[in-house]
Design a protein that fits this description.
By secondary structure, this protein is mainly alpha-helical. 65% of the residues lie in helices and 1% in strands. It has one domain: Hydantoin permease (Orthogonal Bundle). This is Allantoin permease. It is a multi-pass membrane protein. Pfam families: Transp_cyt_pur (PF02133). InterPro entries: Pur-cyt_permease, Uracil/uridine/allantoin_perm.
Length: 515
């Protein structure tokens, strides 16, 4: 139900973003393929990036985290820890533990992107095979497509409020429902959908620039919001909730919260190489991650404590999200600015977490027909067509579908990491990742690595049991770590060891980062 002029804007942006031809004309991509690669495994967006000319600096990587860490979903999670009995210092401790693990895991994942220059679906060919790589890529992409739609819907609710504040005459449209969403909701959702598609249609460089601009805006907005709450509370904070935990129960909750904080990024640790393949150096990844993860997450935790503890002092209410604070801003101009900032934030988070992964996954599925831009449009259309507001309002879909797919993310990470770091010891023959030949090192058996499949099945099954079996509920907070550990262990036990591997870069078939 897109407005005609919006459809035209999207189509025009796609055509302008391409160089030399309209991607909507014809089915097969018209691009030159290097002579030594298989057409069914290669296009310019799946190709490795050249070492020279990479553009993702330490600041760009920091900006990713400046946006993603401060997402509304993360704030809701951290604020919810107050309701579970954790006070201010316990929340900061839990986030710090989680940040330490994430810094290590994301730096390891990021190094893989720097060395090989390939996106996650191609990276998965190392451990799963040239065809088996579709399994991790489509699981990661499927989760992202659903969340893209849901996050766009949540952002549209903010835009609804903003539009009514600016144009009160639109209020009646919020009462007229069509397919489970108000007419105003359809308008807001369509606007945000189009904006995100246009940005994505200009490729990863466009996303990098948007994230770089949005990061400071988000940080300043939340610091200002925390400052306003602290001022309104007279400089006082309530550090402990009414039902504060202590002793062993407190530490169990702290460790459980730290584990869940890592699990929230279970998708991102998989495909962080989608971004670091364009990083200028290892140092850029380390410094960007350092400032963006432990330091930025500490700032995030302090903002959580101020917003929650300050609001408890002001009126005794326990907020559930920063939007609860924004709605209480007495100044209409400030309310509009804050709402716009939340929209900028949600778009930034959606682009990096839920747009990039499915675009690469679909391009990997049909590389001769879908490049990044075409795949981005296809994934966005799917994210619209599933009517995500209905999914969001269905606990069964959220718990069983997304929870079921999510149970595979830990094992996938464990297998990919074990193969790269423990078995191959970072030795990768990059050009061979694009060769679909029975004699190729990543062809395995019919394009599938039996060891990876054998490791995935039992570890994912155990992860599903932990997620859904009431008797194992006590372990559910630690399910990602358990699943990732089992996936790595099973793969290490099954995979052949002591072999020698060719280590060759992909410069011969590489493309410029900003192609």
């Amino acid at each position: 139900m897109l407005l005609p002029e919006m459809e035209g804007a999207v189509m025009a942006s796609i055509k302008t973003a391409e160089t030399g031809h309209d991607p909507l004309q014809g089915v097969t991509l018209s691009e030159t393929i290097p002579p030594d690669v298989s057409p069914g495994l290669y296009n310019r967006d799946l190709a490795p990036t050249q070492q020279q000319g990479r553009t993702w600096s330490a600041y760009n990587i920091f900006a990713l985290w400046a946006n993603d860490v401060h997402s509304l979903g993360n704030y809701s999670f951290a604020i919810g820890l107050f309701a579970l009995g954790l006070g201010g210092w316990q929340i900061l401790t839990a986030l710090s533990f989680g940040a330490l693990f994430l810094f290590i895991l994301l730096t390891m994942s990021g190094y893989m992107g720097i060395k090989t220059g390939v996106p996650f679906p191609v990276m998965s060919r190392i451990s799963f095979g040239t065809r088996g790589a579709q399994i991790p890529a489509l699981i990661r992409g499927g989760v992202a497509i659903v969340w893209f739609g849901i996050q766009t819907y949540l952002a549209s609710m903010v835009l609804d409020v903003l539009l009514i504040a600016l144009i009160p005459g639109l209020a009646p449209l919020a009462q007229q429902m069509v397919l489970g969403l108000s007419v105003l909701g359809w308008i807001s959702f369509s606007i945000l959908w189009v904006v995100q598609v246009i940005i994505a249609c200009y490729g990863m460089e466009s996303i990098r620039k948007y994230e770089a601009c949005a990061g400071p805006v988000i940080l300043v907005t939340f610091v200002a919001l925390a400052g306003w709450v602290l001022y309104s509370a007279g400089g006082e904070l309530r550090w402990s909730p009414p039902n504060a935990l202590s002793g062993g129960a407190m530490w169990a909750q702290i460790l459980g919260a730290a584990s869940l904080w890592v699990a929230i990024y279970g998708t991102f640790v998989l495909n962080f190489c989608d971004f670091t393949r364009g990083a200028v150096s290892r140092r850029a990844v380390v410094m960007g991650n350092f400032w963006g993860i432990p330091i930025n997450m500490l700032i995030f935790g302090m903002i959580v404590v101020i917003l929650t503890g300050g609001q408890l002092v002001i009126d005794g209410t326990l907020i559930q999200s920063p939007t609860d604070v924004v709605q209480k801003i007495p100044s209409k101009p400030l309310l509009i600015i804050a709402s716009l900032s939340l929209l900028i934030l949600t778009i930034a988070v959606n682009l990096m977490a839920n747009f990039v992964a499915p675009a690469f996954a679909l391009a990997n599925l049909l590389p001769r027909h879908l490049d990044f831009r075409r795949a981005a449009v296809v994934s966005a259309i799917i994210g619209f067509a599933i009517l995500p507001w209905n999914l969001y309002n269905s606990p069964i879909v959220i718990v069983y579908f997304l929870g079921g797919l999510g149970a595979f993310l830990g094992p996938l990470f464990g297998i990919v990491m074990a193969d790269y770091w423990l078995i191959r010891k970072q030795q990768v023959d990059v050009p061979s990742l694009y060769i679909d030949d029975a004699s190729g090192p990543y062809h395995y058996v019919g394009g599938f690595n039996p060891a990876a499949i054998k490791a995935l099945i039992p570890s994912a099954a155990i992860s599903l049991l932990i997620a859904f079996l009431p008797a194992l509920h006590a372990l559910s907070q630690f399910s990602w770590f358990i699943a990732a550990g089992l996936g790595a262990l099973f793969y290490w036990l099954i995979a052949p060891k002591g072999l020698s591997y060719v280590d060759r870069d992909g410069e011969a078939i590489a493309v410029a980062t900003n192609h």
